[in-house]
């Protein structure tokens, strides 16, 4: 069998899909034939940046707000920048 069941169009159309969530001021990373929508919470050039990649079916909008506050404020003050890539 050369075709895997996970590659069947009926299955992939339901499990691997772009979610229509939107968020303000996206930051885009361009590549050869693709564009990643990102959110960059920049606090200071002097701080390191954590890059967060999502799982399947998640979007940047799922991680804004409380999650982002917990990441950037993990050391009891704003100590890192956060780049969420989806």
Structural description of this entry:
By secondary structure, the protein is of the alpha+beta class. It has one domain. Strands 1-2-4-3 form a 4-stranded mixed sheet, with helices on one face. A hairpin with a 2-residue loop joins strand 1 and strand 2. The protein is elongated.
Features:
single chain; elongated; four-stranded mixed β-sheet; alpha+beta
Q: Care to give the gist of this entry?
A:
It contains two helices and four strands; from the N terminus they run αβββαβ. It is an alpha+beta fold.
| Helical stretch tally | 2
Write the H/E string, N to C.
Answer: HEEEHE
Mean pLDDT level: 77
Strand order of the largest sheet: 1-2-4-3
Q: Structural class of the secondary elements?
A: alpha+beta
**Biggest β-sheet: count, sense, barrel?**
4 strands, mixed
Which oligomerization state do the chains in this entry correspond to?
single chain
- Name the shape in a single word: elongated
Can you count the beta strands?
A: 4
Rounded to an integer in angstroms, the radius of gyration calculated over CA atoms is 16 Å
Helix content: 10-25%
């Amino acid at each position: 069998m050369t075709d895997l069941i996970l590659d069947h169009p009926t299955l992939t159309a339901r499990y691997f899909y772009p979610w229509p969530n939107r968020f303000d001021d996206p930051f885009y990373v361009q590549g050869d034939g693709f564009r990643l929508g990102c959110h960059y919470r920049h606090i200071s050039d002097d701080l390191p940046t954590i890059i967060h990649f999502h799982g399947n079916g998640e979007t940047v909008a799922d991680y804004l707000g409380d999650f982002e506050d917990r990441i950037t404020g993990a050391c009891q003050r704003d100590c890192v920048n956060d780049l969420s890539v989806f």
